[in-house]
Write a structure and sequence with these properties.
single chain, eight-stranded mixed beta sheet, five-stranded antiparallel beta sheet, binds aspartic acid, 8 helices
């Protein structure tokens, strides 16, 4: 047993007609990055943020460099981070002009008395704190969602996330997204909302992906945590949350890890780009249910 475990996702908008060979290789690399950091004593918070920053920087998912524009052609990005044993949290919404929203979310958590900043105030804060700016928006983003067109226009989406249980039993979650493709300017989904798209406490850590409006209405991440607190096994709690999203008529998925290192990654969509490293050291990478 390693004493630590982690899981990541690259969004629930997978389409069987597409080839995810690059994403599969990259998700394995991102898990190996997490494993190396955990093996050298990295905290759950450090690892969750480092893995999500790697997913953002890859340009392969609809977050960070892979982001897609809103209806006006602008890139408004969202992210949140939460540390379980302290219940500290940081989030940023509708952030423009910076490479790593998850690192800005962590700065907000650690350097302000607030949980969330948005829009122009978030941009000013990121600039003052020295977050790395995007040199030229028009040429930097890769629009990773191209081809994931199995959703109706207006609900194509994708996100990245990571949940970690470190060697000391601490939990953390990190989530980052460009949100829904062609979204209305100013639209904010579940991904930066603590309790909707992300959560961590001393029992469980969660990162969601899917039609954000439904995850907000379900209080998805907090609902999962409260089910666990009420005694439900992790897999059952996670499944119940996804049942509720499906009952709303939506799709998506989530990743969750508990204090024992158990991992759940249910989804109600064609696929969920996902990878995990369990407490016994087994690494898995999947996109669909038969691979
Ligand atoms: N939940 C994200 C949002 O609604 C999108 C996604 O996870 O695919 O912004």
């Amino acid at each position: 047993m390693t004493g630590f475990a982690l899981a990541l996702h690259g969004g629930a908008g997978a389409n069987r007609k597409l080839n995810y060979a690059r994403e599969r290789v990259h998700m394995r690399e991102a898990i190996e990055l997490g494993r190396a950091l955990l093996a050298s004593g990295g905290t759950a918070l450090d690892v969750a943020v480092a893995v999500v920053a790697e997913l953002e920087a890859s340009g392969l998912y609809i977050a960070g460099k892979g982001g897609s524009p809103n209806r006006d052609g602008e890139y408004e990005l969202d992210a949140c981070v939460m540390e379980g044993h302290t219940r500290r949290a940081g989030a940023v919404a509708a952030l423009r002009g910076f490479k790593s929203p998850i690192e800005v979310a962590r700065m907000i958590m650690e350097r302000t008395p607030h949980v969330m900043l948005c829009g122009l105030g978030a941009e000013r804060f990121a600039r003052e704190q020295g977050a790395e700016p995007i040199p030229d928006e028009a040429s930097w983003f890769t629009h990773a969602c191209a081809g994931e067109s199995n959703f109706a226009p207006g609900v194509m989406h994708g996100t990245v996330g990571c949940v970690v249980r470190d060697g000391a039993g601490r939990l953390a979650s990190a989530t980052s997204t460009a949100g829904v493709f062609d979204k209305t300017p100013g639209r904010v989904g579940d991904s930066p909302l603590i309790g909707a798209g992300g959560w961590a406490d001393d029992r469980v850590s969660v990162s969601c992906t899917g039609q954000g409006e439904l995850f907000i209405r379900a209080a998805a991440a907090a609902q999962l945590a409260f089910r666990v607190r009420a005694g439900a096994p992790l897999a059952e709690a996670a499944m119940r949350v996804m049942d509720e999203i499906a009952a709303f008529g939506g799709d998506g998925g989530l990743i969750a890890i508990d204090a024992n290192g158990a991992i759940a990654m249910p989804y109600r969509s064609e696929g969920l780009k996902r990878a995990s490293l369990s407490m016994d050291g087994a690494l898995s990478v999947h996109v669909f249910d038969d691979d």
